[in-house]
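Dear Dr. H.,

I hope your travels went smoothly. While you were away I took the liberty of generating a structure for the chain from your last submission, since the lab meeting agenda had it listed for discussion. I wanted you to have the full record in hand beforehand rather than looking at slides cold. The sequence, exactly as received, is reproduced here:
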Amino acid sequence: MQRTGRARKWEQDEVITPRSAISALAVCLTLAGCMVGPNFRQPDAPTTGTYTESPLPEQTAASPGNGGNAQRFVTSQDISAQWWSLFQSDPLDRLVRDSLTNSPTLTAALATLRQARENLIAERGALLYPQVDGSLGATREKITGASVGEPGVGSEIFNLFNASVNVSYALDVAGGNRRQLEGLQALVDYQVYQLEGARLTLTANVVTTAIREAQLRAQIKATQDILAAEEKQVESIETQYRLGAVARLTLTTQRSQVEQTRALLPPLERELAKTRHQLAVLSGKLPSEAALPAFDLDALILPQDLPVSVPSSLVRQRPDIQAAEALLHEASAEIGVATANEYPKINLTGSIGEVALQAHSLFAGPAVWSIGAGLLQPLFHGGELEARRRAAVAGYDQAEAQYRQTVLLAFQNVADALRSLEADARALEAQSRATQYARETLDLTQRQYQLGGTGILALLIAQQQYQQQRLNLVITQAARYADTAALFQALGGGWWNRDPQAAASADAQSK
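The corresponding predicted structure, in token form, is as follows:
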């Protein structure tokens, strides 16, 4: 039942007459089965039809080399629950699955979900069903005549045994208990989506960290290749120096360039080690015991078809949006709980048992029973109840604002990923040409230097430019892979397409 008016305020000096009490009881019995407070309504999805301000092209630019294929944006295709398998890397697929099984983060999230479910079951039993308790007691008492108004009568000591079954039940006339259970169910839903969000974050972190490792390995290899070429160049200059064909300054300058290139390797190797350690932790293993596979960019295949969900479905796919909606639902239920506290409460009690002076005759005599009912109507609480209801309304407004902010950030994530992929493709196309031209420039400069047509300074500049362009090419290639993973994460990761039996098995393994 929807609350349509403000509950009557009893002033401190008002007197409750028997007729008003009976009327209140009749109203409460009539309201049994209704629920006060707002009925939660799922927020509407945004009406926009696009993620970006200007339309996206049907596909990205293409360029030669690894990771240079064009990517197509497909709106009619759903996202696979195992989206990482689109990179066509068996080691990556195994690592993601191991991480989903062994991650302490997922184990903690699953335990939190189980805790929320058990709390809901406990509160459902406490609020919806009668409470039945059995009691058994024995006391030894002394009674005197003076205690019953007969001073001349002596005292007597006796044993008293009693056994009883007590029943109590609170009629949920205003629906406050059901609103409370509704809020607890919303918190269970929140933990469900928190678990899905943790899964999505974990898989995305594993994929992007593996891509980071592949990038670092490619940078190290490129640096080693450049270093080998420069060392070979030093050997040639040393021969020329021994023959007196070049000055010592030329030799020391080239040696300095070699050492500068060599100095690039330790930071890259350090970052590679840290990345491997991070992968180990993500997979739930110690860095010393992980036995992780090695990842290379050449072994990863860039997904060419990118399923892009329509904007209206994003709010049902993103776990963080669904979690924010669950908190909004819980806040709505709290308004109902606070409203119900302003209405009368009816408690029913009953008991049946036996009382005897000897234990063996405890169940031989007639039963002693009682039954009763109580009505509690809040009269004056110093404005507490209405203030708590206003606080619940404010909590709902806060949850609603947080929900809207979550939706805005989700759409921003998707828009950022789409634009990044488009820009990455164009950047890789340009970077591929720049690297090619830098290689040609270096080859020409080396031949001119060997023929005496140019100096060592021009050769060093050409070497540095090629080195920088080759490293930039690796970074640009890796960016396309990482931003592709970011798009899958921004769109929700396809968790709704996961096989229920496989999900249940994974949850059981995590317990």
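Two observations you may find useful: The CA atoms of residues 250 and 480 lie 41 Å apart. Residues 176-242 form the longest helix (67 residues).

With kind regards,
E. W.
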